[in-house]
Amino acid sequence: MIPAVMPTYARWDVAADHGEGPYLYAADGRKFLDFTTGIAVTGLGHCHPHLVAAVREQAGRLWHVSNLFQIPGQERLAQRLVDHSFADTVFFVNSGAEAVELTLKVARKYQSATGHPERSRIIGCEGSFHGRTFATLAAAGNEKYLDGFGPPMPGFDHVAFNNLNEMRAAVGKETAAILVEPIQGEGGVRAPSPGYLRGLREIADEHGLLLLYDEVQCGMGRTGRLFAHEWEGVAPDVMAIAKALGGGFPTGACLASERAAVGMVSGTHGSTFGGNPLAVAAGNAVLDVMLEKGFLSRVQAMSEALKRRLEGLVRSYPKLFAELRGAGLLLGLRCLVPAGEIVARLRQEGLLTLTAGDNVLRILPPLILGEREIDEAITILDKVAARWPA
Ligand SMILES: *Cc1c(COP(=O)(O)O)cnc(C)c1O
User: Does residue 185 have its Cβ closer than 6 Å to ligand 1?
Assistant: First the structure.
C-alpha cells in the first residue's frame, strides 16, 4: 500500500523532533550533530534565538497579504540584498527552483525586450542541479531526474562544467544566457578553476548574453562571503538564491541588475506567497545575523579549521578518502568506498552528513559552528574510518 506521504524519498531512520543550534534531536531521544543543516538551509543552526523571536513577533502581527499591497519588510529585505550584492532589484519566491525559473524568465525577457526575441536558449553545465520543476530539470539536463517525465522542456544546451572552450563553442544565434552554479553542490561539491567565472563573463559580454548564477546552495554565507562568486569578484546579471535565505522558512529570491531586469514590468511575473510578511521577517532576521561584523570572517576561520582536520583525515585514510573538495562550509570528501555507506555509519554514531554526485560525502555544517563541534565531528569520522568496514 502506498504510504500517505508519496514515497519519493528513501528516508532515514530518524524522526526529527526538535533542534538546538548544531544539534538535532530525534523523537526517540537520540541526539545528532547536524552537518546536513536541512541541505544548506538552517545556516544559523536550529532555532536560532534571534530568528525564533523575529518570526514569533511577526506571526502575532501579520502573516500574509498579497503582493498587491506594499510590504515594508519585503522592501527592507530587498534593499539590504541590493546593498550587499551586484543587484539593483529583487523578486521573492518560495523555493530554489522557483528562483531559478524566474532567473531564466528574466534572461529571456531581457533578450526579447532588447530586440532579440530569437535569443531564448540557455546553456547550462553538466553535473548541475537547479531544482525539480520542468524548466529547472531541463536546465540541468540530468537524465536520472528527467526519466519518465516526457520530453524535456526545449531551449537548453549543456556543456562540461569548468570548460570555457566548450562553452564558447556552444554559443549560437539563439543563445540568451549562460547558467552556472559558482560551486556545484549536488553534483559533487565541485568548485571550478580560478578564472572560470571571469571567462564566462567574457563570453557572455562578447556575445550579448546574460550570465546567470544559481547560488541557491553556495550563497547566503555558505562559503564565508555572503555570495560565493564574491571570491572571484565576477558579478552575474541575474542570480537565484534560496535555501539559507529564510533560515528554514521556505523562501527564495531572484536578484537582477537594472539592465537585466529591463523587461520585468508590471504584470510580467507574480507569486501568491513570495515575499509575504512572515517570510521576509525570517529573511531579515537571517541577514541581521549574517551581516553582523565578524560573522562571515568567523565562518572563514571555522572553514579553515575544519578543512585542516578533514585534510588530515584524507591523509590518514587513503583507502577511504581520495580528496577534500569545495569551499567555506560547503565541503565534500570524495570517497573510494560507497559514500552512502559511510554516511549511514556516521549517522549511527551521531553525525549527520549527506552524499553528493561523484561518490562524495557532503558536509554542510551550520555556519555558527565552533571548534568543539569540529572536534566532535572529526572524532566520529575518525572512529568510523578507523573501523571501516566494520
Ligand atoms: C536545492 C537547489 C535548488 C532547488 O531548490 P528547491 O528549494 O529544492 O527548489 C536549485 N539549485 C541549487 C544549486 C540547489 O542546491
Answer: yes
The pTM (predicted TM-score) of the whole model is 0.98
Is-contact 249 43, C-beta < 8 A?
no
Return the best residue to mutate from 39, 100, 254 for the ligand 1 pocket (most ligand atoms within 8 A of CB). 100
Tell me which of 35, 86, 129, 227 is the catalytic residue: 129
How sure is the predictor about 160, in pLDDT bands with cuts at 50, 70 and 90? very high
Is residue 128 helix, strand or coil?
coil
Length of the chain: 390
Instruction: Output the pLDDT for position 149.
Output: 97
Check if the beta carbon of residue 364 is closer than 8 Å to that of residue 390: no
In a domain, residue 1? The reply is: no
**Residue 358 a catalytic site member:** no
Task: Round to whole Å and give the CA distance between 24 and 207.
Answer: 49
> Which of ligand 1's atoms lies nearest the C-alpha of 215?
13
Total count of domains within the chain: 2
Provide the domain limits for residue 217. Answer: 50-290
Q: Is the shortest distance between the CB of 215 and ligand 1 below 6 Å?
A: no
pLDDT at 47 over 90: yes
What's the rounded Cα separation, in Å, for the pair 49 and 265? 39
pLDDT of 366 reads 98
Q: Give tens-digit pLDDT for 75-123.
A: 999 999 999 999 999 999 999 999 999 999 999 999 999 999 999 999 9
The CB of 246 under 6 Å from ligand 1? The reply is no
Q: Are residues 128 and 253 in the same domain?
A: yes
- What number does the ligand 1 atom closest to the CA of 184 have? 13
Judge if 375 and 243 occupy the same domain: no
Q: CA nearest 381: which of 347, 356, 358, 355?
A: 347
38 lines ligand 1 (CB under 6 A): no
Q: Is 288 a catalytic residue?
A: no
Question: Is 129 an annotated catalytic residue?
Answer: yes
